[in-house]
Design brief:
357 residues; H-NOX domain; Arc Repressor Mutant, subunit A; 2 domains; two-stranded antiparallel sheet; 16 helices; 9% strand; globular; disordered N terminus
């Protein structure tokens, strides 16, 4: 059986239900969001069943249609920005009812992952910098611009609501190309915004994670957790076409901390043989080396935002020398690690390195 293509990946209809509430509450369009869903081909009549499956591409098309209908090229950002108590969903309430953001992520990541099968959702901490990541298939990034911008804006606003105060971000990154006008991105996030990045990310002061949440409610936590567990237990399997590759990537990010990133170590950590690991990755059109390169590329951005020296960053990523890391980074980003670090800290776009250098 051929693997499902990215456009065929499906998500629980709970996500579509939230999309409808979110768009209607934001008041960014002059028609009901359910009408937009019907227009793109979503069977609204089936959405009452939270376990029904909806193609994630159709959710993205609803955002695109809403943007075209409203003439608002920053529609996703505005929808996420206006997310409030009236549209916070089951997962959001479960998240902000925890005592801290760190506790929320630790408790809910495994439980919530089946609701977001199309992506890798991560939280990494390097020194004093924490990064929330939402990574989708790179080939799909351009199709999901408004949806991903809405998601990051809403996550940012949800964190602010839980913390009870506005906190400054360190940077924001999106996988899709830079749109013509980024004025609203800069206003809403009030931080350097980057595009064409390996993942959609919010980077922030790691102290946010341990700060007590003003919305903490232990009793509500218990009730919502029972409901979420029941929901996830009854949920049919995802059709995400690269689930194994995503699992390998997550494991690689963990193994980089111990330095054991070879084929034997990765296969052992996943409980499969080396031959099985290679075969399953080949079936998904990739290889362990390609995934190692991708994870290195993504981790390098976070590590360069820390106070580590360039040599220490190269060592953390498993390179034998700073020169080897620099050559790889130029291949990924078109600039040297030092140039990238400088431009991130002063907030100006880097100049691509000369190809003949």
């Amino acid at each position: 059986m051929r693997p499902a293509q990215p456009s065929e990946a499906t998500v629980p209809s709970l996500r579509a239900q939230f999309l409808i509430r979110e768009l209607d509450a934001a008041r960014v369009i002059d028609v009901a969001a359910s009408d937009l869903c019907r227009t793109v081909g979503i069977d609204v009549g089936q959405l009452a069943d939270p376990l029904a499956r909806v193609p994630v591409r159709l959710l993205a098309k609803v955002y695109d249609l809403a943007a075209a209908r409203s003439g608002d090229d920053a529609l996703g950002l505005h929808v996420g920005e206006r997310t409030g108590p009236g549209v916070v969903d089951l997962v959001d309430y479960a998240f902000i009812s925890r005592p801290t953001l760190a506790k929320a992520y630790d408790d809910l990541h495994a439980l919530v992952a089946p609701l977001y099968p199309e992506a890798e959702v991560s939280l990494t901490v390097t020194g004093e910098v924490a990064v929330f990541g939402y990574r989708i298939d790179p080939s799909e990034a351009a199709h999901h611009r408004h949806r991903c911008e809405a998601l990051l804006a809403s996550v940012f606003k949800l964190a602010e609501r839980g913390l009870g105060t506005r906190k400054p971000l360190l940077r924001v990154a999106f996988q899709h190309p830079r749109p013509p006008d980024v004025t609203e991105h800069e206003r809403i996030f009030a931080a350097p915004v980057q595009f064409d990045r390996p993942a959609n990310e919010l980077a922030f002061d790691a102290r946010w994670l341990s700060a007590p949440l003003a919305t903490a409610d232990a009793n509500l936590c218990a009730v919502l957790d029972r409901h979420l567990r029941d929901l996830v237990t009854r949920m049919p399997p995802s059709q995400n076409y690269k689930r194994f590759s995503y699992d390998v990537r997550r494991r690689l990010a963990q193994l980089f901390r111990s330095g054991a990133i070879g084929l034997p170590a990765v296969a052992k950590s996943l409980g499969v043989s080396e031959r099985t690991l290679q075969r399953r990755l080949q079936e998904e059109g990739t290889s362990l080396q390609e995934l190692v390169d991708e994870v290195r590329s993504e981790l390098s951005v976070s590590l360069l935002d820390s106070d580590l020296s360039l040599t220490d960053v190269a060592d953390r990523l498993g390179y034998a020398s700073l020169g080897a890391f620099s050559r790889a980074f130029r291949r990924w980003r078109g600039v040297s690690p030092a140039a990238h670090r400088k431009t991130v800290r002063i907030g100006t776009p880097p100049r691509p390195a000369r190809t003949d250098a």
